């Protein structure tokens, strides 16, 4: 049995230019994910899928391999993560390398740890899921959500307008960090999330979406808090 870590890092980031190699607390943000994958000991190959020479050079500097560059069709704004994963698995297969499991990691997920990857892999194999990925609980009950039309508020689920929060079932969302997949199942469905997917719950402090310039310093501060790096 062999596993591959695939870190998806194209060069054409729009909202935050050069996002995938921007310094995060003094180190390229992609380096954190590479380190976590390497330290987990789960993978016979830790690679970065990119179309960018600078990203490739930095990835190699921190211990990842970049055996080939991503094709233009999987590097544009319309390519999905599943498209990239499929391309990488196919490229390796053409070179005679076949993997049992693959972990597709996002390069801007510095909160990922080797222990979290080990937990995901254990859940994937023990429960025979197609995919396992981290999820976080919504901080407010989604059953009490409202719609807003021309400033008028309406209940999204009116039947729960008077339901106590503690009586509502918790709901979760994708933490946007990684997907650990069974390669055979992925190749059969070409989907990262299937009816046979599993989730591992992480706290609100263990992930942070970085979509704009405001998110960046907030993520750095959370990371420092998580690792006791904040000083008075």
TrEMBL record:
Keywords, A to Z, come to:
Nucleotidyltransferase, Transferase
Q: Which InterPro entries match?
A: CMP-NeuNAc_synthase, Cytidylyl_trans, Nucleotide-diphossugar_trans, PseF
What name is this protein filed under? Pseudaminic acid cytidylyltransferase
> Which EC number(s) does UniProt give?
2.7.7.81
Q: Which lineage?
A: Bacteria, Pseudomonadati, Bacteroidota, Cytophagia, Cytophagales
One annotated GO molecular function is: nucleotidyltransferase activity
Q: Name one Pfam family in it.
A: CTP_transf_3
Q: Which residues form a coiled coil?
A: none
């Amino acid at each position: 049995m062999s596993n591959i870590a695939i870190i998806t890092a194209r060069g054409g980031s729009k909202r935050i230019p050069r996002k995938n190699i921007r310094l995060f607390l003094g180190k390229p943000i992609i380096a954190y994910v590479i380190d976590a994958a390497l330290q987990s000991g789960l993978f016979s190959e830790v690679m970065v899928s990119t179309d960018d020479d600078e990203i490739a050079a930095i990835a190699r500097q921190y211990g990842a391999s970049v055996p080939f560059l991503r094709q233009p069709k999987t590097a544009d704004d319309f390519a999905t993560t599943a498209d990239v994963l499929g391309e990488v698995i196919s490229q390796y297969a053409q070179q005679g390398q076949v993997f049992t499991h693959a972990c597709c990691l996002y390069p801007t997920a510095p909160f990922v740890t080797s222990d979290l990857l080990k937990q995901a892999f254990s859940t994937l194999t023990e429960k025979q899921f197609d995919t396992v990925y981290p999820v976080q609980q919504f901080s407010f009950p989604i059953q009490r959500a409202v719609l807003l039309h021309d400033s008028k508020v309406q209940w999204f689920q009116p039947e729960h307008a008077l339901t106590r929060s503690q009586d509502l079932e918790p709901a979760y969302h994708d933490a946007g960090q990684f997907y650990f997949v069974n390669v055979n199942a992925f190749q059969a469905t070409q989907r990262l999330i299937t009816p046979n997917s599993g989730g591992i719950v992480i706290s609100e402090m263990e992930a942070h979406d970085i979509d704009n310039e405001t998110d960046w310093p907030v993520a750095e501060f959370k990371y420092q808090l998580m690792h006791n790096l904040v000083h008075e």
